[in-house]
Amino acid sequence: MTDNGMTGVCLRGVRVIDPFRDVDSRDEDLTVVGGLIVPRDDPRARGCVEIDGRGLWLVPRIVDMHVHFREPGQTWKETIETGCQAAAHGGVTGVAPMPNTLPVVDTPELVEWEAQRGADLGLVHVYPIGAITRQSQGEALADLYFMHQKGARAFSDDGHPLTSSALMRAALTYAATLPAAIINHAEDRQLATGWCNEGPVAEQLGLAGTPEAAEAVMVWRDVMLAELTGGWLHEAHVSTVESLHAIRYAKAKQLGVTAEVTPHHLLLTDDALREWRYDPVTKVNPPLRSKATREALVKAVSDGDIDVIASDHAPHHADEKSLNYQEAPYGISGLETLLGATFTALLEPGLMRPLDLMRLLTVGPHRVLRLSYPGLIPGAAADLTLIDPQRRWVVDPGQFYSRGRNTPLAGRTLVGQAVATMVQGRWVMRDGEVLNAGVSNLHR
Ligand SMILES: [Zn+2]
After folding, report:
1. Cα separation of 158 and 162, whole Å?
2. How far apart are CA 127 and CA 113, in angstroms?
3. Which residues have their alpha-adjacent CB atom under 5 A from ion ligand 1?
4. In angstroms, rounded to a whole number, what is the distance separating the alpha carbons of residues 42 and 30?
5. What gap in Å lies between CA 65 and CA 50, rounded to an integer?
6. Which residue ranges does the chain devote to CATH 3.20.20.140?
7. pLDDT tens digits, 380-437
8. How confident is the model over 86-98, as pLDDT tens digits?
9. Beta strands of 53-115 (E only): which ranges?
10. Is the pLDDT reported for residue 367 higher than 50?
């Protein structure tokens, strides 16, 4: 534990799951010196700190490409610091915060500020996403070129669907020249007038529901515009059967279309509303869907039709989530359950090979954000997570580093948990404890 970077670290007997090289290999050793992977016989590895990794998986560069950190503007919900701590705690080595802060991250200055804030914290990599339109109001394109120059990895008005088809066309056309992906939150707001999924559960509880079509009509529109423009469309938090048809259509035509699903849509259904009654802890957008839709999402992921699993980490203060169902804000605090929920939904039932699953948390987001990583080879940055895939643990939001404790997984047993997170050769989390780079831990 005293080591933090300069002395080498030798991880012994781990199962290396490296989707960047298509490798899944048991009983491996890996040596890290000076922030980099080095050959085992590297002279600098002498005297390294030995770590027994038997029974653990070692996975490089887990990136959660859809998080909300609320800074600037709503730091009572989350800050970049607490968000990065939550990421490290969850076994995530990089995050892409959405720009729907106050103010909206729609200028090169704000992109640069956010990237610098992330770098100063020295916890996990922060990859800013810039707004597509000014203030995400859907009226005029923001300055995509200069935001991209300052480090914006993609563009999104997430939280707000980009309603204007003409502007979506322009955004896809323009971003393709950078090149960068346009990430859309697909939702027809004139159809999406409910608080939860339209169906028997909504009826039983007397809550207004939103039909799946509210999402799917816009996903289809977006796919058609991706086809028209040749641009790169990434569809955020896909949650309907018909959206999956659109994604499959786009892939069959080899369009530049990628898609993401959240762990909560893979693990939960609107039955959670029966369990939690009118507690808005289950209120999320897009809403938790029916059992049949959940099964279709799980199948799409296990069939390889989905590129990314991302948490849509949306922390809120307990007071806000104590409002009634209609008034409470949408969102689930998801960074610290990302791995556990995903493993519980897909690995525990034996639906996917670990290597295929980890691709969605590593290679997938790298592709969309246009990040490059060579895999665990000598010279590569030591950004890695040690995971105990067998560990059963009960979700206790009181243990979260995130300021948002809002999760319908509270009290639930998940299988699989990160036990250590390393970024650039430095431990940022070990045994559940986040190790700050000399920054005050204000939260815990
Ligand atoms: Zn969204």
Report:
1. 9
2. 12
3. 158, 185
4. 11
5. 32
6. 61-369
7. 999 999 999 999 999 999 999 999 999 999 999 999 999 999 999 999 999 999 997 5
8. 999 999 999 999 9
9. 57-60, 63-67, 94-97
10. yes
As annotated, the residues of the chain forming the CATH 2.30.40.10 domain(s) are: 9-59+377-389+409-434
Residue-wise pLDDT for 88-141, tens only, equals: 999 999 999 999 999 999 999 999 999 999 999 999 999 999 999 999 999 999
The answer to whether 270 is a known catalytic residue is: no
Ligand 1 center–CA 431 separation, angstroms: 32
Q: Are 121 and 442 in contact (CB under 8 A)?
A: no
Give the amino acid at 164. S
CATH of domain 9-59+377-389+409-434: 2.30.40.10
Give the lowest-confidence range in 4-8, 39-43, 113-117, 195-199: 4-8
For residue 6, what pLDDT band results from cuts at 50, 70 and 90? low
Q: Indicate which residue of 18, 64, 158, 312 is catalytic.
A: 312
Q: Quick one: tokens of 394?
A: 């009960």
Task: Read off φ and ψ for residue 86, nearest 5 degrees.
Answer: -60, -40
Q: In DSSP terms, which residues pair with 393 in a beta bridge? A: 414
436 CB burial (10 A radius; 0-12, 13-18, 19+) = middle
| Statement: residue 46 has pLDDT above 70 | yes
Q: Which residues pair with residue 16 across a beta bridge?
A: 25, 58
Beta strand 63-67 with 57-60 is unpaired
Write down the pLDDT at residue 180: 98
- Is the domain spanning 61-369 CATH 3.40.50.2300? The answer is no
User: How far away, in angstroms, is 52 Cα from ligand 1 center?
Assistant: 40
Q: Is the peptide bond before 99 cis (omega within 30 degrees of 0)?
A: no
